Amino acid sequence: MKENETIDLLLLNIARKEHDADWNWKYVNSPFARLYMVESGSARIVMPDGVHTIRPEFLYLVPPFVMHSYENPDFFVLYYLHIYDKNNLLDLLDFPFEVNATEFDYTLIKRLLCINPGRELATSDPLIYDNFQNLIKGISDVDKLSIHHVMETRGILLQLFSKFMEKASTKQTITDERIIKAVNYIRTRIDSNISIEDLSGLFYLTNDHFIRLFKKELQCTPLQYINRKKIEKAQLLLTMGKSTVKDIALSLSFSDVSHFFKTFKKLTGVSPNHFQQLQNRY
């Protein structure tokens, strides 16, 4: 991540919640990050790299678009935060799942809860709270806060995330400056129709030469990378629910809706219509 790029974090939800063997949800995958701090007891989160026990004295981070599940056989109490990364910069880094928490971190989260009342989820079921009404409400509610509380909220979020940033690493160690620039070009123009010619032309390379360089650095072709980023953006737009599947396909510059359907299902395992139905089912 470059020095001139900034992380702009919005708090969607925050609450202190008691669970008694009722925090058991499978295959959760959302367009926002989750931060947890346990007050007492313990539970388990199944991440792509295995099963993790969450317990007091630590902060836990689940990044956006990471498939995971929850297991809660006993009573426990935790604070949860749902956080939206406006600039999509967290996607560039690999974060540790667990970092040590201090008493000051507990104080920060309690202060965050104090200045953001009414942000508790009505239910713990992700199929309900991931729907577009809640996401839109969380984003729009930021505008209702006083400016000093907006500033304080973002400051606290940055302090909490800084503990994870300290131990974060880039998802890919890209050594070729040309590919770094190409990735940034794709990320900032993901709504556009980006061609191989556009990318290779930036560096006066042939298409074949550019594709070889890109694949060497990221282990995928430029087209595969572009499609993955477009579908991640589509998941967010479908969750927000303001547009139809057709409108989203067109807004992301897919050649036709059929191509969008095929690409979405290939990368997510479900059709965009099915995905949207799950978000709007409640």
Question: How would you summarize this macromolecular structure in one to three sentences?
Answer:
The chain has 282 residues and is of the alpha+beta class.
What does the model show?
With 282 residues, the chain is an alpha+beta fold. The protein folds into 2 domains: 9-170, Jelly Rolls (Sandwich), CATH 2.60.120.10; 177-279, Homeodomain-like (Arc Repressor Mutant, subunit A, Orthogonal Bundle), CATH 1.10.10. The chain is built from 11 helices and 10 strands. The strands form 3 sheets. The protein has a 5-stranded antiparallel beta sheet with strand order 1-7-2-5-9. It has a 3-stranded antiparallel beta sheet with strand order 4-3-6, with no helix packed on it. A two-stranded antiparallel sheet has the order 8-10. Strand 3 and strand 4 form a beta hairpin. It is globular and about 60 Å long. The two termini are 38 Å apart.
Which structural category fits the helices and strands?
alpha+beta
What is the correct CATH architecture of the largest domain?
Sandwich
Which outline best applies? globular
Instruction: Kindly provide the radius of gyration, computed on alpha-carbon positions and rounded to a whole number of angstroms.
Output: 20 Å
Q: What is the element string, with H for helices and E for strands? A: EEEEEEEEEHHHHEHHHHHHH
Largest sheet: 5 strands, antiparallel
Write out the strand line-up for the largest beta sheet, numbering strands in chain order. Answer: 1-7-2-5-9
Number of domains: 2
Distance between the termini: 38 Å
Name the poorly predicted regions.
129-137
